[in-house]
Design brief:
Blueprint lengths: L6 E7 L3 H16 L11 E5 L14 E2 L6 H14 L3 H4 L1 E2 L3 E5 L1 H16 L4 E5 L1 H11 L10 E5 L3 E3 L1 H14 L3 E4 L3 E6 L6 E6 L2 E10 L5 H7 L5 E5 L5 E6 L2 E10 L16 E6 L3 E2 L6 E3 L3 E8 L4 E11 L22 H14 L17 E5 L6 E5 L3 E5 L10 H9 L14 H4 L14
Parallel strand pairs: 1-2, 1-12, 2-9, 5-16, 12-23
Antiparallel strand pairs: 3-8, 4-8, 5-7, 6-7, 10-11, 11-12, 13-14, 15-20, 15-21, 16-19, 17-18, 19-20, 22-23
Bound molecules: flavin-adenine dinucleotide.
The site of flavin-adenine dinucleotide has 39 residues, from helix 1, strand 2, strand 15 and strand 21.
Amino acid sequence: MPTLPAHAHYVIIGAGIHGLSTAMHLAQKLKIRGTPVGARGRRIVVLDKSSVGAGASGIACGVIRNNYFQPAMRELMAHCVSVWETDPDAYSYHAVGYMQISPEVMHQQVGEIYEQQKAIGYESVFIEGRPASQKYMEGIFHDWQAKNITSVLHEKRGGYANNMASLRGLTAKAAALGVEIIEGVTVTALNKGSRSAAIASVETSAGTITCEEVVVGVGPWVHSIWNMLELPQSISVKGRDGKSHDGVAMWHYMALQEGTLGVDPNFLKTNAGAMPPVVHVDTDAPLYSDRNGALITDQLWGLYYKPDFHFGGVQGGAMPAEVTRPADEVRVDPYGPQSPEFVVNDNFADMWTSALAHCQKRFEGQHGMYKKEPSGGIGCFTPDSFPVFDRFADNVYIIADSNHGYKMIGVGDLVADELLGQPRALLEPFRFSRYATGKSHPVSNSPFPWS
Ligand SMILES: Cc1cc2nc3c(=O)[nH]c(=O)nc-3n(C[C@H](O)[C@H](O)[C@H](O)COP(=O)(O)OP(=O)(O)OC[C@H]3O[C@@H](n4cnc5c(N)ncnc54)[C@H](O)[C@@H]3O)c2cc1C
């Protein structure tokens, strides 16, 4: 059984992107202040019930983009991209860029994103109109054929990173700074002190550890820690229209649908022979099966894809599926591809490979190359599907990214500042109080809940 120290100043639960990034940035900032980290200084201990990357961060497709309709998300993502850019090798970050390719129903909103990207100095190009969009895409991929496309937003920054490689990079940096990462330890309870609401100790499968601060970065398991803190299962949410909705479930789950076409990743090079930007297409053109010509949908649909040597093919996904059961009844473990219930099925394979063929001729007839291996995983979402970054019970900092988050490596940097007493304006729009005060984020026309 792993050995725990009796006390740590900071106990961080979860060794995913948020737990590790917070630990690493915190150690960096303490060192700059001249505060030693470790047994003879402030101890930072990261606990994980399994191992580094055992959660959503270890299976994420790894797409890193700025394209968000919500100004607060865009500004936060710009910060996150700048953190990825600090050390592309250690984070296994590929700065190939990102494209949002959209139908008319999204044209105006994506145009607003472009204008605001200009305003914050985030480099992108916006192409408008059907013929200009087609021409722009053919300039990158000669076989481009997606229908009903009237705008293309091409972000020159962002791209993707390799999930486990970036976590290993973060782990190495954190450990070198004195952070202790202890695997195979499950947090089972958070104990209050006798005289305050603050958490005084963390109970685990390997014993109890006293602490000053707790950071929660447990991704899809956030609901269980929320229960340990006895926080409300349902809340009132005031909409942007000023109307209150009572009894809204605090957490719900969605199943992320992703897969890989087992072709050589070089199959998707650009006309110039380069690795392409990550491609995200939404369209309202009818989608027909590449297998048998049957209509799959005539509603708005979307997909994203990229060539990826790490996944061994062209990898990507489509819209998530709602998990209709209440959060309490969802079995999060075993997680990801090991789950007996939440892996993608043949409908996804047909939809996604047909969507690829809809977009580029080179994918026609390639559906047989789809890798028939378990993939996908669930995410835990907030009422508005945007993150909550906030303190609870005085000294518990919850990082609940509502499944936006592998790309959000910069959140740990900001949270570390807040743990050291410096509030960060970029996190302010993500406080829990927004549900009561009606300061919610605007909603886009995208078929994805996180755009
Ligand atoms: C299939 C899929 C694809 C995705 N693709 C992308 C993408 O392309 N881009 C993007 O930005 N985001 C993507 N996401 C979302 C992203 O992966 C998550 O938002 C993010 O990784 C969450 O990070 P985390 O650190 O909060 O949690 P996780 O990475 O889930 O880590 C949580 C850790 O906490 C540990 N833990 C849980 N409970 C306890 C406990 N009680 N005691 C101790 N340890 C515990 C777990 O073992 C786990 O290792 C994707 C998600 C999925 C499921």
